[in-house]
Please model this.
Amino acid sequence: MTVLNQDQVRSAPTGELVLSMRGIDKNFGAVQALTAIDLDIYSGEVVALVGDNGAGKSTLIKILAGVHPKDGGTITYGDRPVSINNPAESNELGIATVYQDLALCDNLDVVANLFLGHELGRATIDEVEMEKRSWDLLRQLSARIPSVRIPVASLSGGQRQTVAIARSLIGDPRIVILDEPTAALGVAQTAEVLNLIERLRERGLAVVLISHNMADVQAVADRIVVLRLGRNNGEFTVAEVTYEDIIAAITGATDNAVTRRAQARVDAAGDAAVAAGASPDAAPPEEDRP
Amino acid sequence: MTTPTTPSPSSSSESAAPPTETVRLAAVAADLQDERLIQQHGIGGAISSFRRRVRAGDIGSLPVIIGLLVIWVAFSLLNPNFLSSTNLVNLTLQCAAVGTISIGIVLVLLLGEIDLSVGSVSGLSAAILAVGFVNLEWPLVLAILAALAAGVVVGLLYGFLYTRFGVPSFVITLAGLLGFLGLQLWVLGSTGSINIPFDSWIVQFAQQTFLPDWLSYLLVVLTVLAYAALRYGTSRRRTAAGLSALPVSSIVIRSAALLVVLTVPTWYLNQTRGVGAMFVLFLALVVIMNFFLTRTRWGRAVYAVGGNVEAARRAGINVTQIYVTVFVLCSTFAALGGLLAAGRLAAANQGSGGGDTNLNAIAAAVIGGASLFGGRGSAFSALLGILVIQSISSGLTLLNLDSSIRYMITGAVLLLAVIVDSLSRRSRVSHGRA
Model:
């Protein structure tokens, strides 16, 4: 349950630093959406970006995706400073963003959606090669898609999310940003997507995960960055943090329903339990996790 | 592809399968390994999978083909002359002009847009041809190019208005319907009707040119051979890539079926005047547009924009360019259809492109299976749809029925087609095939 300072965070992940944001500012008219935000992204690591509605999570990833330009601060890619002014520049840096609405064409099949805008072949589309590569990619991700020649409309929510994430890998990115990938999914489908996120990490990709679901975050993330009202409000490694700490950082208060209940439990259990405050007992029950 | 699924500790049950299972999977084509996939083999399998698709609302061209058969049987019972070779030759010639316009309508419908002005644009094109060639004594080729250029300019204008100002295409083209009708009347001038000389090649082409018997059969054979070669090539490449492929026996059966479907009508038309050059031009345009729609990046982009504009934009497709090219193609096909109609009539007048031209072209695309909701349909929708419309028209004319009845029946068929479209769409959604 340690809030890590910058130096500790940098040494913690095993991968190399892919991208680093320092002192990012962004305002929309009179609203200061982001103030001096810092974010580091490492390869082979899943970093969860959490925060309440309006905390600035989406604004931050839209700056990375090239949708909004930043107003201040620096972005360093590898060891060189970069500016990301439009989605194309973001793609060139190897940043792939999967938006919450997935942006799939329901009338096209899985292969067509995977390669949309990047079809293989010279004068004509090489359907055979595209289908072969689709299967290779989906197998690598252990994705459970029965057929790639059926319209995307006929897939389940989890499968659609899988297709959207697989599509982001077509351009061979280094960073994958997932915006609320499990928001609309059932238990089994959430498990499917969380497995997929594990696969991305195993491939050595840097994953930025935005989620409201703390169970999901604790299940797959390595590091949690909390935003609150457009500012950094804590950075945790998942192994060492409790649910209450995250909630406290998100809400900005140590006094809320979750902590009160936890406190009541602690009081009832007596002093012995206080020492075990960081044990899994205080975290949400294990079976809730997919 | 023979890569077995990679075992990994946290993955789903598939990777937990015993090694024998992996060996078994490796022998199966990469796209057929999922055990949930309902697999069908042989001809019986093909039939039952077809039945399942129809029940799920994925009916494709089936209703329009059944409709066409019903119409033909009904009219041939009412008047034996309907299915005579002479009448069918006329039918094909009547199809060509409006059918060509209808190809353009299919394109805009694929984007989920509409062009209501194709009739006026075709009339304008006919007027430009007649005035240029007859009154101003331009060379015929120049007059034709000027008429087609007018179509291109109209399409560019629509594309600009739509992409720059975001005015709905319904309104833009409704304004175009009125505006270009006015322009057509202005171009024609006070005479109002201009005859095109019978000995000019455009009239000869539209009225008198028929393929010699040997050439028509040669074209049929070449088409079937090209179809078989393409299918076989794809099949071999799929096998090489480790994917399931159509067996040779199936390719032979399909090619033989295509040969019969093409040879019988050709033989029957050849009993009298034969296959009209104008109809062959229309068929060629349909096949060419089908190629562009299904095999090129542009065609894929058209379907993507029709399915989900925002997804297409984020995938890096130049959406503006797609809209502009489709509006230009639609207006140009309308202009070409106007030229064919003028050639067949050997005249351009104030009524050119008027009357039911507009509505028949749009109705044909919809009856042929192009969805009004965008993203669904094929170039062949234009061919099937116009055959239905002209069959009704020809049959009712043979029965000496008034045009009032003709309009009402065509309207009813159009309504039926749209209802079938909506019902099959609803069924597709509930069966997950939308």
Chain A has two domains: 6-94+173-288, 106-170. Residues 106-170 of chain A form one domain.
